[in-house]
Design brief:
- The chain is of the alpha/beta class and about 525 residues long.
- The protein contains 26 helices and 9 strands.
- Strand 8, helix 24 and strand 9 form a beta-alpha-beta unit.
- Helix 8 crosses helix 26.
- The radius of gyration is 23 Å and the shape is globular.
- The two termini are about 40 Å apart.
- About 5% of the residues have low confidence.
């Protein structure tokens, strides 16, 4: 499909423009679209255009399609859905755009519009980037298999917003890995047999499993303390957003973040009643649910009167900083959301902006830094993490070619669009191997999992770490603080494993009973 293949609007058009949703004419989103002058500066920066070479899979091509939908020249066909969900959402085009087009807001609006169309013609949860040869379809959109619709509803409506259910899901994964069941499933061929079954997931189960190579930490992470006092003189009172995936997979990074903040005079507030930030919802077109989560988090953190709200996950931080935009049409929350977003700081952004505690020991490491897309392009934070790494004695920071090029993670893109994500990972790993670094540092959990998987698959002896982990190690090496040994007795672990097993069994039983009733 080319730009010329979309007809100009005419009085005889039989396509009705949207009457609800963000892709309407004479709206804020429509005004954002019209800022694009189709100059093409974005083309060399777009990962999907670099791989496919298809104009409709470039930022300006996607904007042209959005505008055509808003004006009634194009319907929401499978072709339109494919192009919108093929985008990794890296926002590199924003950095390159001379007109300041806010493409991240536009692609999220397009996906929300797709989800607002009737169920029988949309509700796509998995749009594969399988058209690597540039093939496309002009047919009306097909319905999504029921199992994928149910999975989408469970993921967005049940699992992410609920810490207990999210914990049970990840505990089940950890039990699968640690009990020997995973090894048995591979040795016996059961895993390959299930992966080959003619289901919507056929041939697609290996990547999700490979991303979670070895789930670390307790089966169910302990709740972070609500109030952690500053070490020494208190200079700031900061709130901390612990996140969903970050807290389940990288709970140790959250703990390191709190330690580093306290070492820099911060009293850290981690409200136990905080919820998922809504980033994955907004990126995936579930914006209304994202707004509900945003309202909840605003109400929670307003109670604590913090000087700043700290986040250590790039993708989450990008969305939280845009709560003001997300709730712009909500009269009860618009101003509150704007005030909240203005307080949000990435951990590296905050630490560079204060007088940093320099009591660090040496870390004789060679480190390369990968820019998480939503940190460098979404939040415009590029130098701050590098400044922190350079402040660590003994650490040598080396350049990574195309450091700000997407690694293919992009939220859950590496699961839903596996072929394209693989192409991007291959490009990233070639540059990483060339650095000969012993550590790759990056500030987003998705990037960490994706790059670590790439290193394992290629046999590269590289450790993937968050910059805050390196800073935490430096403070410990310098004697600023030491870690206390936690109670990890066999009895305690066995009791927790038993409780988790019972919980998972009950959850599965409830789901099966509900299915039988329907």
């Amino acid at each position: 499909m080319s730009l010329d293949s979309i007809p100009e609007q005419s009085a005889t058009s039989d396509i009705t423009p949207p009457t609800i949703g963000p892709l309407q004419r004479h709206t804020h989103t429509y005004d954002l679209m019209r800022q694009c002058i189709h100059c093409g500066f974005c083309l060399p920066t777009c990962p999907t255009y670099a791989v496919l070479g298809v104009e409709m899979d470039s930022p300006r091509g996607r904007i042209y399609q959005m505008q055509a939908v808003a004006e009634g020249r194009l319907g929401i066909t499978d072709d339109f859905v494919d192009h919108m969900y093929c985008c990794v959402g890296c926002r590199a085009c924003e950095t390159a755009c001379p007109s300041g087009v806010q493409f991240g807001k536009l692609i999220e609006a397009a996906r929300e519009q797709i989800q607002l169309t009737p169920t029988e013609t949309s509700n796509h949860t998995e749009i594969e980037a399988s058209n690597l040869n540039g093939a496309s379809s002009e047919t009306a959109p097909k319905s999504t298999p029921l199992v994928l619709q149910l999975l989408r509803r469970f993921f967005f409506d049940v699992m992410l917003p609920s810490r207990p259910i999210l914990s049970l899901v990840f505990a089940g994964l950890k039990l699968y890995q640690r009990s020997g069941l995973q090894a048995f499933a591979h040795r016996s061929g059961i895993f390959d047999a299930i992966n080959a079954l003619p289901t919507p997931f056929q041939g697609k189960l290996k990547v999700p499993e490979a991303l979670m190579d070895k789930a670390k930490g307790d089966l169910i992470p302990e709740q972070l303390p609500e109030i952690t006092p500053a070490l020494g003189q208190k200079r700031y009172r900061v709130g901390f957003i612990s996140g969903c995936i970050m807290d389940q997979v990288f709970h140790d990074i959250n703990e390191a973040t709190i330690r580093v903040l306290t070492a820099n005079g911060c009293e850290v507030i981690t409200p136990p009643q905080q919820s998922c930030c809504g980033a994955l919802h907004v990126h995936g077109g579930e914006a209304e649910h994202g707004r509900e989560l945003a309202r909840h988090n605003i109400e929670v953190f307003e109670q604590y009167n913090c000087d700043a709200i700290i986040i250590n996950s790039a993708g989450c931080g990008s969305t939280i900083k845009e709560y003001g935009h997300l709730l712009r049409d909500d009269p009860a929350y618009a101003q509150r959301a704007k005030a909240f977003s203005e307080k949000v700081k990435d951990i590296s952004e905050f630490l560079v902006g204060i007088e940093l505690n320099q009591s660090m020991g040496e870390l004789p490491l060679t480190v390369a830094y990968h820019d998480a897309c939503h940190l460098v392009h979404g939040q415009k934070i590029k130098q701050q993490p590098r400044q922190l790494l350079k402040s660590i004695p003994g650490l040598r920071l080396v350049d990574l070619k195309e450091a700000d090029w997407c690694c293919g993670s992009a939220g859950i893109y590496n699961i839903t669009n596996q072929e394209m994500a693989n192409e991007l990972l291959e490009r990233k790993m070639k540059h990483i191997a060339a650095t000969r670094a012993s550590v790759i540092a990056t500030g987003n959990p998705g990037c960490m999992m994706q790059i670590a998987m790439g290193a394992r698959e290629r046999g590269l002896q590289i450790e993937v770490m968050h910059p805050i982990q390196l800073l935490d190690n430096a403070y410990r090496a310098g004697g600023t603080y030491t870690l206390t040994t936690q109670d990890t007795t066999t009895e305690k672990n066995q009791q927790r494993t038993l409780l988790v097993g019972i919980g998972i069994g009950l959850l599965i039983g409830i789901l099966l009973l509900r299915r039988r009733k329907h």
